[in-house]
């Protein structure tokens, strides 16, 4: 940790660090809160802005803390913090795992929520086919175990047709 | 010429952007749509290891090669291409700078007419792109919609009921669609109205970028205008709005040209005459200067000072006068000074067969 800076006027710890640019010359001044008001380094309005800025910083810090606290994505292991930094999620599952934060971000950049337009047409059919295929596989195994060879042959043919259809 | 580049066939073929002289139109160079898609169950490229990216590339290529429209496409693994070859693909708008500089596992598949290019492992697993010369969003959408459905017949996309197609960057979720037109707006630039246009367009949820997308310059007064939002509106609504705005910008540019002719005629004709003079007689021409001069000649074609097919020549040269393409002609690396000389030589040759500009066309 760097040594805390001292106030320019008294020896108290400086909590306000002013950077002034006057006629292109940059001066940095460290002050404690009392001296800031005493010396009128900042006008009333400007100080209001400083306070606003401090409030904004406090919020940003709090946000950072929440980001850091959220457990990483169970799929890809990325932390919310990192997504915030890079602006990119780690995997599709991040959108479910970090739903609270990510959906908020999406809403902020997109202005709205709720998908309109094209949706995948084949994925659901493929899922149905996979389900069917799994069921028939199990039935086939049972038929073989129970020596019902005619049933087994029929199931095998059904599975083959299904596979062929899927490849087309 | 030896087949020293693996992308050579692509350069020799007549492509949409370099050889469609007749379909080239004033103001809009090309219309393009890209769709961002990802495979479900795989890490996004930025999070994936080299091995995982290669696996995704293999799966994607397998699916893409089965898709109608891409079965006879040419594919390349980006890490197997030389820096020069990547640069050429960027200059032809077939791959992005991000993909060309990316980590191992990147790939691209391009159809014969070079109207479709699918990038693999760019920011998303798939960046499907389709383009045509001129302004025709409906045609490009029809093409890319069919292609996307075809690809989805072979690959499982990551999709979310509420958020639509899931993408690495939250700014692309929803339709995953960015539609854009590459616009030639010299009169708006000359008359200092571009800033106004950019601001107006931003209010409608659209963005204006330079020639090569995000962060690039608008060399030759060429800009990309595209949609920003991807969520909450269907593709057709986004495209209709974009089309309307693009038409308005075309109109604005045409008006600005007429105003220039009315108010500053001699200065404008002087610019055009000098541009032609430099292209026809120059011996050292930088890439930026070539773009700026070609840009003025393109506007002269729109004014009727050159035959219509010259516009196609200009569009081709806008691509072929760039550093990567030039080095291809000499089959190797060429330093900047050598490039500028070679560029001037090519431009002199191309311009020598053109008639002089007919200034009476705008009398």
How would you characterize the overall build of this protein?
The complex is a heterodimer of chains A (168) and B (363). The longest helix of chain A has 26 residues, at 44-69. Chain A has helices at 33-39, 44-69, 80-86, 94-97, 99-110, 123-145, 149-167, and strands at residues 16-22, 25-31. The mean pLDDT of chain A is 80. In chain A, β1 (16-22) and β2 (25-31) form a beta hairpin. The termini of chain A are far apart. Chain A is mainly alpha-helical and 168 residues long. Chain A is rod-shaped and about 100 Å long. In chain A, α6 (123-145) packs antiparallel against α7 (149-167). With 363 residues, chain B is an alpha+beta fold. Chain B is 46% helix and 15% strand. Chain B is built from 13 helices and 10 strands. Chain B has helices at 8-12, 16-19, 50-65, 83-91, 97-100, 137-152, 186-190, 194-203, 235-281, 287-303, 310-320, 323-329, 336-352, and strands spanning 28-37, 74-77, 107-110, 116-120, 126-133, 159-160, 164-165, 177-184, 206-209, 222-227. An 8-stranded antiparallel sheet of chain B has the order 2-3-4-5-1-8-10-9, covered by helices on one side. In chain B, strands 6-7 form a two-stranded antiparallel ribbon. In chain B, α4 crosses α12, α9 (235-281) crosses α10 (287-303) and α9 (235-281) crosses α13 (336-352). The longest helix of chain B has 47 residues, at 235-281. Chain B is globular, with a radius of gyration of 21 Å. The termini of chain B are far apart. In chain B, 50% of the residues are buried. The model of chain B has no long low-confidence stretch (mean pLDDT 91). At the A-B interface, α5 of A face α6, β6 and α9 of B.
């Amino acid at each position: 940790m760097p040594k805390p800076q001292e106030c320019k006027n008294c020896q108290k710890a400086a909590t306000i660090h002013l950077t002034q640019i006057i006629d292109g010359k940059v001066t940095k001044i460290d002050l404690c809160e009392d001296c800031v008001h005493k010396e009128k380094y900042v006008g009333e309005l400007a100080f209001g802005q400083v306070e606003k800025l401090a409030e904004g910083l406090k919020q940003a810090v709090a946000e950072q803390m929440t980001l850091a606290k959220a457990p990483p994505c169970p799929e890809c292991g990325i932390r919310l913090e990192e997504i915030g930094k890079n602006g990119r999620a780690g995997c599709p599952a991040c959108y479910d795992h970090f739903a609270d934060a990510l959906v908020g971000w999406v809403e902020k950049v997109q202005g709205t929520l709720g998908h309109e337009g094209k949706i995948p047409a084949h994925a659901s059919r493929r899922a149905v086919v996979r389900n069917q295929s799994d069921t028939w596989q199990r039935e086939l195994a049972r038929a073989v175990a129970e020596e019902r060879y005619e049933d087994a042959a029929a199931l095998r043919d059904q599975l083959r047709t299904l596979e062929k259809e899927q490849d087309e | 010429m030896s087949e020293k580049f693996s992308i050579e066939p692509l350069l020799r073929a007549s492509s949409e952007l370099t050889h469609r002289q007749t379909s080239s139109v004033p103001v809009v160079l090309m219309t393009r749509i890209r769709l961002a898609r990802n495979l479900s169950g795989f890490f996004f490229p930025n999070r994936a290891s080299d091995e995982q990216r290669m696996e995704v590339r293999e799966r994607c290529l397998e699916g893409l090669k089965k898709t109608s429209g891409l079965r006879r496409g040419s594919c390349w693994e980006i890490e197997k291409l030389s820096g020069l070859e990547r640069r050429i693909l960027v200059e032809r708008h077939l791959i992005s700078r991000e993909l060309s500089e990316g980590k191992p596992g990147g790939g691209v598949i391009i159809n014969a007419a070079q109207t479709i290019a699918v990038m693999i492992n760019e920011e998303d697993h798939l960046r499907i792109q389709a383009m045509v010369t001129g302004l025709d969003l409906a045609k490009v959408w029809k093409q890319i919609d069919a292609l996307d459905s075809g690809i989805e017949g072979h690959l499982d996309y990551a999709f979310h009921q509420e958020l639509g197609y899931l993408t690495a960057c939250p700014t692309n979720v929803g339709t995953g669609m960015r539609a854009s037109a590459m616009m030639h707006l010299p009169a708006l630039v000359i008359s200092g109205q571009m800033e106004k246009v950019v601001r107006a367009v931003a209010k409608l949820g659209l963005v204006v970028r330079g020639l090569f997308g995000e962060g690039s310059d608008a060399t030759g007064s060429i800009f990309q205008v595209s949609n920003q939002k991807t969520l909450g509106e269907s593709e057709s609504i986004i495209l209709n709005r974009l089309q309307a705005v693009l038409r308005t910008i075309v109109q604005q540019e045409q008006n600005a040209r007429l105003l220039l002719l009315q108010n500053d005629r001699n200065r404008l004709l002087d610019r055009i005459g000098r541009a032609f003079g430099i292209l026809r007689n120059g011996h050292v021409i930088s890439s930026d200067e070539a773009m700026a001069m070609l840009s003025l000649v393109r506007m002269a074609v729109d004014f009727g000072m050159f035959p219509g097919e010259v516009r196609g020549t200009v569009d081709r040269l806008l691509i072929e006068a760039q550093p990567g393409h030039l080095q291809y002609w000499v089959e190797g690396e060429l330093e900047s000074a050598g490039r500028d000389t070679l560029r001037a030589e090519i431009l002199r040759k191309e311009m020598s067969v053109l008639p002089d500009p007919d200034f009476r066309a705008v009398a």
